Amino acid sequence: MAELRKRQELPEDVGSDDCLASYTHIYSPDLLKDQVAFITGGGSGIGLRIAEIFMRHGCDAVIASRNLDKLKEAAVKLSAVSGRRCLPLRIDVRQPESIVAAVDETLKEFGRLDILTNNAAGNFLCPASALSFNAFKTVLEIDTMGTFNTSKVVYEKWFKVCDFICLPLNASHMCMKTEIFLILTAIQNQNWFIFHKHAQRNRLVSGINLSETKTSDLILISENNIC
């Protein structure tokens, strides 16, 4: 009986790359008002849902991946449900020059960049023993090198030249030094998000068990650098 009740309380299961039919804000709808998020792999799956929730909280978004047609389709959906701007850009995170071009376009369009979500990933759904050498190399190039490449470009192009990033946190403001990379890894079949935050003077790694939390909720990690 308890298991049945728990299932009934779960958010809707969207099996395709469509936006949620409904969304209940547990935080202020304008929590991320007028901020700009750059989300790699944002045209489908987890990345699309991250973009959607950010945008439903007032954020504009750049979604970037290799498939521009899919990105354009996703951007139309995201803007329609949120009323926010969504810029689709083609990049390959293995190629730094394509990231540079995308970040330049982002800054030209929005004039700022507040949030970086490294969501792009290469996946082969098979046992490790069945992976070819080239397949494993591809996974590392996208997941590991791609994360570094994107973080470095965003830092060099924007975070490096700004003194602070201020994220509204209810009535107060959380101010963080700009030498921060936000790296989001999501394991789709387990309700875990792992947040890695690398700052100039400290390193915070936090894991949140979302088994009792709606997957459509916006999860924030607070930080002890309070201004």
UniProtKB/TrEMBL annotation:
Keywords assigned by UniProt, alphabetized: NADP, Oxidoreductase
Record-linked InterPro entries: DECR2-like, NAD(P)-bd_dom_sf, SDR_fam
Top-level EC class as recorded in UniProt: oxidoreductase
EC number: 1.3.1.124
Reaction equation(s) it catalyzes: a (2E,4Z)-dienoyl-CoA + NADPH + H(+) = a 4,5-saturated-(3E)-enoyl-CoA + NADP(+); (2E,4Z,7Z,10Z,13Z,16Z,19Z)-docosaheptaenoyl-CoA + NADPH + H(+) = (3E,7Z,10Z,13Z,16Z,19Z)-docosahexaenoyl-CoA + NADP(+); a (2E,4E)-dienoyl-CoA + NADPH + H(+) = a 4,5-saturated-(3E)-enoyl-CoA + NADP(+)
Similarity-based family: Belongs to the short-chain dehydrogenases/reductases (SDR) family. 2,4-dienoyl-CoA reductase subfamily.
Assembly and oligomerization: Monomer, dimer and oligomer.
Stated name of the protein: Peroxisomal 2,4-dienoyl-CoA reductase [(3E)-enoyl-CoA-producing]
Species annotation: Ameca splendens
Taxonomic lineage of the native organism: Eukaryota, Metazoa, Chordata, Craniata, Vertebrata
Gene label: DECR2
